[in-house]
Amino acid sequence: xxxxxxxxxSLLLSYQFVSAQSPTKExxxxxxxxxxSSRVDSIxxxxxxxxxxxxxxxxxxxxxxxxxxxxxLKRGREVFGVLQPFGQVWRTGANEATExxxxxxxxxxxxxxxxxxxxxxxxxxxEKWTIILNGELGxxxxxxxxxxxxxxxxxxxxxxxxxxxxxxxxxxxxxxxxADLSLxxxxxxxxxxxxxxx
Length: 198
What we know:
The protein has 2 helices and 9 strands. By secondary structure, the chain is mainly β. InterPro entries: DUF2911 (IPR021314).
């Protein structure tokens, strides 16, 4: 019996030595055969937007209004009636639909409006625009526009101005009763009065 112990021990040691010498095969994962630069560039370098995100703000002691919108450029094109057809719902900018936030209740175009955030759609026409505040947020363009979600609609006069706005611009001008919200692009200006308690 004692003579078997050294034999068994030497067999075990030989097996461990042979096992250690033969490498185990790991599963090989195959990756697409793209150049390294292609894979890295697609992660590191996002494509810049043709129409940048812009911000218009009105601030006072008791009121804050913010508009976030995509800012398209004219680039030699005829804008209203051609690029943006008359009578069709527009996102009022580019990319995501424009959103407007009010920190307090206001009168927007003469109609009462509760504080909150709304999507700002418009329907341009030659002489007047329909301004729409819609309750469905986070929309891309006006493709999913749902008129049943409208909170408020008002009409506003479309004025032709001397100055040409290359970039679509939204701005505020303070008034005695509150502020005017102006939409400007090419030679068109549309103004909506906003009134509130100061």
